[in-house]
Amino acid sequence: MSKYLFQATYTASGTKGLISEGGTGRRNLIAHMCHELGGKLESFYYAFGESDVYAVAELPDGVTAASVTLAINQSGAVHVKTTVLLSPEDVDIAAQKTTKYRAPGE
After folding, report:
1. Which of 44, 45, 69, 74 could form a disulfide with 55 if both were Cys (CB 3.0 to 4.6 A apart)?
2. Is the pLDDT of residue 69 over 90?
């Protein structure tokens, strides 16, 4: 399974829903959604700044992560940006792979 970082920003209507349901209610809903998709929610935090929520989930694959992003974004109440996370071991493996690349103009 792969890990994904979800950064969410609430719209005005999403903020109203958050106030109505509470922070733990939203976290529990996301945890349940991840579980039903064969994954698990690892962390869920609210924050000040550009994003309102930072969540890390372990999901079966990129298609599943995309379905989460699409489902949330289509609601119109929240905008989600998804980032694939790599472990240090994954980076070690990637660093050992030979990839032919030429910079522009070289």
Report:
1. 44
2. yes
